[in-house]
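hey so i finaly got around to running the thing on Threonine synthase from Porticoccus litoralis. pasting the sequence first so u can double check i didnt mess up the copy paste, my clipboard has been acting weird all day
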Amino acid sequence: MKYISTRGQAPVLSFEDAILAGLATDGGLYVPETLPQFSQEEIASWAGLSYQELAFKVMAPFVDGEIPDDDLRELIANTYSTFRHDAIAPLVQTAHNEFILELFQGPTLAFKDFALQFLGNLLDYVLKKRDQRVVIMGATSGDTGSAAIEGCRHSDNVDIFILHPHNRVSEVQRRQMTTVLENNVFNIALKGNFDDCQNMVKASFGDQSFLPEGRQLVAVNSINWARIMAQIVYYFYAGLALGAPHRPVAFSVPTGNFGDIFAGYLASRMGLPVDQLVIGTNANDILHRCISANDHSLHQLVHSLSPSMDIMVSSNFERMLFDLYDRDGAAINKLMTDFKATGNLKLSDSALTKARELFTSYRLDDDEMVRVIADVWEHTEYLLDPHTAIGVEAARKTRRRQDIPMVCLATAHPAKFPEAVRKAGYPQDPPLPHHMADLFEREERYAVQDNELSAVQQFMKDNIRQ
Ligand SMILES: *Cc1c(COP(=O)(O)O)cnc(C)c1O
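ok and heres what it spat out for the 3d tokens, dont ask me to read them lol
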């Protein structure tokens, strides 16, 4: 399988090179040249497979023999052995034909573990084979950092540096990162905000000359293709559990950077009968405005109670646009260049029509979201986290057919976001799962750094292992 850039100007890469590349040199994102297609008979034959067996079926065509089958199976087995629930992605019913897909059973309690546990193992495997060492650098406002650290803590060939805004992530989120004490893990608390962190990472990817000879930076944000790929699996898993491919299914996804829901779109393109994909956003609603009113324009960032969806632009939407514009790299290049210059992007009529065939969208502010947590708790005694609550309500508000099962993706465990849960009237901080119960007693390690690029890069240089 070859991987091509959404902007059509960058070198075509193999699977392994694409996951090491991050952004393409033309500013685009890597996507597979063709999508694997599964027939209804083949999908039907997967009913009853374990999550790990299914993951192999879905991902193998993307890897296309670059990793031997037995090795890929072992990578998958190792990845999901750290999950607390034997079903890996269990389903819970919350209303008639409405289900919650619990994607928070991994080590850091958010769906990002599905992709980042896999990416960590995959990088370790590929780098060992190539006898190569890399440096991971990433910025986080919460969930990505801990999931990436957890995924890479045992990788001998990776040094990982994660920047978070000093005093601006929740204590649970900080401790999930800073209590990992392996000597290849470095947490930097930057005296600045999340944008400052992100800008520093961007600048460092742009000019990597500060790194020791022979090292390169690798991205772990959702522009990395391996993350999207690993997320396709749970759409098939939930679909099969609810009667696909004999029956269609629908999904609702709390959306920020559009990585998670894009995987659902790919599942439908690969043969899973998906009737509807619901985009739920918080007040940072660029995607809701785009789908509902063709208004994809930059607005100010709003800090919400669902912080993992606080974005101004959804980076993976470019991959969607690439398909909506019939994979015309030149058209995407122009669209994105204009967007950068003007802060505005209008979809063509045909692109918007195509998008609306599958996608609906809905936006909730904090007050509405809190009411949803309270309402679902009252009716089912099921406690939603704030992100999941947005997806549940977006599904209830825009659902097209009651007779088709609606799967709401639960992207985080409520214990990660006690503030929102308390506001909903829940009488206590939701307890952390057993394996993390002592999180607040664990030793922490992190470096507080001034908001200065040269200082951060010097810190990295001093700590990258020989
Ligand atoms: C990252 C995240 C999201 C948003 O996912 P995208 O792939 O960026 O759209 C939603 N909920 C939680 C809890 C997250 O951590």
